[in-house]
Every structure is written in C-alpha cells, then in structure tokens.
Fold this protein.
Amino acid sequence: MRKIQFEDLELIDYQVALEKQTEYFENTVAKKISGFATDNKLFFCEHPHVYTLGKHGKQSNLLVNDNFLKTIQASYFQTDRGGDITYHGPGQLVGYPIFDLDLFRIGTKEYVQRLEDLIIRVLEDYEIYGEHSATASGVWLDVGKPNERKICAVGVKVGHNITMHGFALNANTDLSYFKHINPCGFTEKGVTSIQNETGHKIDFNRLKQKVKKEFLIF
C-alpha cells in the first residue's frame, strides 16, 4: 500500500519539473476521486539556478532585479507551494514526493514533520545534527543560537490529501546565491550546506541513496 516509485530527473529546468509533477499530482487526484487505487511517487532532481516564491511569500524578499538575475544566470518563478522565497541550484538535492497521505494514515502536519525527521537522520551520517524549528519549516542547525542556519527547505502543497512540491537539501550548493534573497523571508538567519559543514564536497549520488533508503521506511 505504501510502495514508493522513484524517478531521478537529474538536472532539469524548474518549470519542466513542475509540469511533470503537476501532471502526476492531477492524475493521482483524479484516480482517488474516481475510487481507484493511487500510487506514491518520488522525483529526485537538481535545478539550474532559480529563485521560487511560495503562494504566501513576499516578492520584496527577492533583493535583485531581472537584469541582475540575467548576470548570474538565474531565473525567478512564482509557484503554489507553501513557504516564502528559496533558491534552487546545482549541488542541491530536491525531492518532490507525490504521496497519498491516506495510505500513510497521516495528515499534512505530521507529513512535514516526517520529511524533516528523514533529513535529520540523513544528516547524522555526516555528523551534522539537524533540528526542527518551532517558528519555521525545514531543517536547521544551532536553533536558538546566534549562528542559527537552515540546511534544508521544506515547502508543500496538499490537495485531497495528495502531496506535491517537497524539500531542497543543500549538499554541494553554491551558497552565494542565497545572498540575493531573504531566505524563506528571514533576514537574521543564515543558510548552510553539507559541504560547508563538513569542509569538503560530498558524493552526491551517495547522498541520493541515503535519502532513498530513508524513504523506503517512511
């Protein structure tokens, strides 16, 4: 009942990936409404440089104009997920689960917490100790301390208890791109990556396998 199908889209334009997951989401919702069995799908990917704004986000949290975006080869996209503004780029593992939460017997709040817990377990393999934040989604380091920083963003959409969008884990990410936004709307908190915390570039394919393994027991 909870079997998950995996598909690695590798490096893919954000809009193309969005269209792909939207099609799968809508087909899954249609199946559910019609009384047919649903499937759980998880897309892995990386995106070329792009800033995405959630449906309740503030455009003012993008700190640069269109001309500057062109100089850094980045694009900007408004989307219907939760959360504010974030950055996607090469070296960041993005996961888009399209799950029927009824098969897991959980609601949206527990689903988001499970996503965060999963990433926290993965980070432990790198001797990085992630935490939940009481005031923001995602996975954070040193919560409540002056150097509090986010390592994984989480933003989802749920309809008919079917999920889409998901998480973005900074692995070998170029963190300089975060300087052009207020990440997730925050001005006083930083961002980090596995590479930044460990001091060396990590094996990206190995990271994928670790995350995939955790989803098998989701």
Observations:
- The mean pLDDT is 93.
- Residues 29 and 160 are 7 Å apart (CA to CA).
- The two ends are 12 Å apart (CA to CA).
- The first helix runs from residue 14 to 33.
